[in-house]
Amino acid sequence: MYRTIICGIGMGSRETAIRLLRRAAALLDHGGNIVVLHVIENIPHRHPMDLPEEFETTAMAEAEKKLVSLCRELGVPATIEVRIGVAASMLVSAAAEKSADLILLSSHVTDITDYVFSSIVEKVVRRAGCSVLIDRRPDQPQEDEAVF
Known about the structure:
- This is Nucleotide-binding universal stress UspA family protein.
- The chain has helices spanning 14-27, 55-74, 87-97, 112-117, 120-127; strands spanning 2-8, 28-41, 79-85, 102-106, 131-135.
- By secondary structure, it is α/β, with parallel strands linked by helices.
- The protein has one domain (2-145): HUPs (Rossmann fold).
- Strand 1 (2-8), helix 1 and strand 2 (28-41) form a beta-alpha-beta unit.
- Helix 3 (87-97) packs parallel to helix 5 (120-127).
- The longest helix is centred in the middle third of the chain and has 20 residues, at 55-74.
- The protein starts with a strand and ends in a 13-residue tail after the last strand.
- The mean pLDDT is 85.
């Protein structure tokens, strides 16, 4: 059905990540490409917290390691990309760069910040130049099930 799928995996539960990866694999054309994208939101360098200088590098390496392991465990062949930036912008940019014909995301329970800032999913839907599929199945994440 789809030649190139950007599968956005956030900080949700492991169950959500598994469901998204399996759905991406099921929707992929023979010979197609899945790009699993995880975005680490920008942390201003003048943030009041004292973070080690290597925080971003370490976070990126750890996220990539976990995603590679999960894809291998599920037998889902995918290219893993971890970027730093604004999640919605990075997802839309990646889709344009890769000429993707689908972005696959998961929604979450709406909270007050979504009304004030709008959600990542909403921004991607508005800006994407390709189809966007939103998995709306709510999970009840447990501490030991988190992907990140």
